[in-house]
């Protein structure tokens, strides 16, 4: 079956929007993707027909809400090939999921002088929680360096993973460079040394097949809004015995079995980590987004995006003064660049004037900006609905930048 | 290129971005402050030498987009030789121009920043130098922050 991008575009209501009287060219997908009609409808349907609290009432609506909510958990479980649905915990997103692991798993375990290893391409959300753990436990952070082409320098990995290292936190895909990290070999090496691994999957979710059992990662995190789903919902995957050994993250209703004023018995997994009324509509929307991704097909999406990435890379490199940052052979559709003599914010404003939406700034990865000697960059990021015409619009707009500034 | 964009990036702004005036550090016991926009990482250091309530010398250093660099450069030109009271009036007039589009006759050359009001995302770029100037008047050690 051929990949019908115009049919896919028809599934996304926002893509017919005009920006400054020009058709929207949305190339800020690594920040958040647009939402297909089926996701919006699933959430509306829940509020119009099923709205009730979950795991509580005996009435019909509560049963319907619970069923839809738990069905969404099952969809996530299958999407990442988790062995057991109890290993999937709903979170607000990757940020909350990483904070949960930092607080509930690592902080109580880490001994003074033990170390945490990160990579030089992490988003702030996979740096700051570990800094806080390190400060509390008087440990150090060690960093796997990034090579000039945007790949991790794995020659340094073996030496970095010393006996002191207890935990490794690594992104599956870089939000700036697009690099897909070779997780299997990294995780295997870490496990050989008794080091547990958390993978930030927020950028991989909509692009790369995820198999947590094959990866053998200990923790994996997702954000629905980067996968064509709603904001404010995501998931933490944790191996059952690890999740079961964690102290509660937030406490209150839902995460308990029995409460009296003397003591509380905590609930079973995964509910122990879902205190309070959850984002039910969000979870249902997340489930609908996964259905949609499966329906279009992740491998078809990847083929489309890779062809477009190749085309876009060739096209933008012809723009005078353009420096592309992140040229790893294995990467997703992310083009991060600078233009000599023009600040990324000025580029962003000029592109927006012709309807082209890109990200300009440090992309919440300031250490990586420093590594490449830049303060800020422009990032154009692709999605399943991106087209060659949109790349042409981007390139044309970048030529306009020269017109304004020269 | 569209008209509002041309209005934003007027020749004077492009020129001040390319060749910022008074782009240097003042030495000695001058007053100074640092301004920072955490959203984009723009940073400026503003230096002031004030004698008898008059701005004898003023300069800046830093990095940022065309709007923030040109705004800082224009600020140093506008405020050199002015009294503190006059400078504070400029601050008010610039603030009104950037946020409401109201153009005071007092603005002079600073009126080239009048196009910024059409681009809400860029107001902070243009106002960074002015907030930093306020901080330098106080000679405060705390960086002026557009997100404060």
Layout of helices and strands:
The complex is a heterodimer of chains A (406) and B (148).
Chain A: H1 5-10, E1 18-19, E2 22-23, E3 25-26, H2 37-50, H3 60-79, E4 88-91, H4 94-106, E5 115-119, H5 128-137, E6 140-144, H6 157-160, E7 165-171, H7 183-192, E8 196-200, H8 212-215, E9 219-223, E10 234-238, H9 240-244, E11 256-259, E12 264-266, H10 280-296, H11 298-316, E13 322-325, E14 334-339, H12 344-353, E15 356-357, E16 359-361, H13 366-371, E17 377-381, H14 388-405
Parallel strand pairs in A: 3-15, 5-6, 5-7, 7-8, 8-9
Antiparallel strand pairs in A: 1-2, 4-10, 9-10, 11-12, 13-14, 14-17, 16-17
Chain B: H1 3-8, H2 11-18, E1 31-37, E2 42-51, E3 54-63, H3 66-79, H4 84-100, H5 123-138, E4 144-145
Parallel strand pairs in B: 1-4
Antiparallel strand pairs in B: 1-2, 2-3
Keywords:
heterodimer, A: 406 residues, seven-stranded mixed beta sheet, B: 148 residues, alpha+beta, four-stranded mixed beta sheet, 5 helices, 4 strands, globular
Detailed description of the structure:
- The complex is a heterodimer of chains A (406) and B (148).
- Chain A has 406 residues and is of the alpha/beta class.
- Chain A has 14 helices and 17 strands.
- The radius of gyration of chain A is 22 Å and the shape is globular.
- The mean pLDDT of chain A is 96.
- Chain B is built from 5 helices and 4 strands, in the order ααβββαααβ.
- Chain B has helices at residues 3-8, 11-18, 66-79, 84-100, 123-138; strands at 31-37, 42-51, 54-63, 144-145.
- Chain B has a 4-stranded mixed beta sheet with strand order 3-2-1-4, with helices on one face.
- Chain B is globular, with a radius of gyration of 14 Å.
- Chain A binds chain B through residues 20, 342-346, 349-350, 353-354, 360-362, 366, 369, 375-376, 400, 403-405, and chain B through 1-2, 4-6, 8-9, 14, 39-41, 63-67, 69, 119, 121-122, 125.
């Amino acid at each position: 079956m051929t990949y019908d991008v115009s049919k896919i575009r028809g599934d996304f209501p926002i893509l017919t929007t005009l920006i400054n009287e020009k058709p929207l060219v949305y190339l800020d997908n690594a920040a958040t993707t647009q939402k297909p009609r089926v996701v919006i409808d699933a959430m509306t349907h829940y509020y119009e027909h099923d709205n009730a609290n979950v795991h509580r009432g005996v009435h019909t609506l509560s049963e319907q809400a619970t069923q839809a909510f738990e069905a969404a958990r099952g969809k996530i479980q299958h999407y990442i090939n988790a062995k057991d649905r109890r290993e999937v915990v709903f979170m607000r997103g990757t940020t909350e999921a990483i904070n949960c692991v930092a607080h509930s798993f690592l902080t109580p375990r880490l001994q003074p002088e033990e170390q945490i290893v990160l990579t030089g391409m992490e988003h702030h959300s996979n740096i700051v929680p570990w800094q806080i753990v390190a400060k509390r436990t008087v440990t150090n952070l060690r960093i796997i360096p990034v090579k000039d082409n945007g790949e991790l320098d794995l020659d340094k990995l073996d030496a970095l993973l010393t006996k002191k290292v207890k935990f490794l936190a690594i992104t599956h895909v870089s939000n700036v460079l697009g690099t897909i990290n070779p997780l299997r070999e990294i995780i295997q090496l870490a496990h050989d040394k008794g080091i547990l691994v958390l993978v930030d999957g927020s950028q991989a979710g909509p692009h790369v097949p995820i198999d947590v059992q094959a990866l053998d990662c200990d923790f994996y995190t997702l954000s629905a809004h980067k996968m064509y789903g709603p904001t404010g919902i995501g998931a933490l995957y944790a191996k059952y015995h690890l999740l079961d050994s964690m102290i509660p993250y937030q406490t209150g209703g839902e995460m308990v079995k029995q409460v009296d004023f003397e003591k509380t018995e905590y609930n079973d997994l995964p509910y122990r980590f879902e205190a309070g009324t959850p984002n039910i509509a969000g979870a249902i929307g997340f489930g609908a987004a996964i259905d949609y991704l499966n329906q279009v097909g992740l491998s078809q999406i990847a083929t489309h995006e890779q062809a477009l990435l190749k085309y876009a890379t060739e096209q933008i490199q012809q723009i005078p003064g353009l420096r592309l940052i992140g040229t790893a052979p294995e990467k997703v559709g992310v083009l991060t660049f600078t233009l000599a003599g023009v600040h990324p914010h000025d580029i962003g404003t000029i592109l927006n004037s012709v309807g082209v939406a890109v990200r300009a700034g440090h992309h919440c990865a300031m250490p990586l900006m420093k590594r490449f000697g830049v303060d800020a960059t422009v990032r154009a990021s692709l999605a399943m609905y991106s087209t060659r015409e949109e790349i042409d619009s981007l390139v044309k707009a970048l030529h306009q930048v020269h017109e304004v500034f020269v | 290129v569209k008209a509002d964009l041309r209005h934003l990036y007027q020749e004077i702004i492009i020129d001040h971005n390319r060749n910022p005036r008074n782009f240097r550090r003042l030495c000695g016991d001058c007053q100074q402050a640092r301004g920072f926009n955490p959203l984009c990482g723009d940073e400026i250091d503003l230096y002031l030498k004030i004698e008898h309530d008059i701005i004898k010398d003023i300069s800046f250093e830093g990095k940022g987009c065309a709007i923030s660099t040109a705004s800082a450069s224009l600020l140093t030109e506008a405020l050199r030789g002015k009294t503190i009271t006059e400078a504070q009036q400029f601050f008010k007039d610039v603030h009104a121009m950037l946020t409401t589009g109201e153009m005071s006759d007092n603005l002079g050359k600073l009126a080239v920043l009048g196009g910024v009001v059409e681009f809400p995302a860029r107001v902070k770029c243009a106002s960074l130098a002015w907030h930093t100037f306020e901080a330098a008047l106080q000679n405060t050690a705390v960086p002026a922050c557009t997100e404060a």
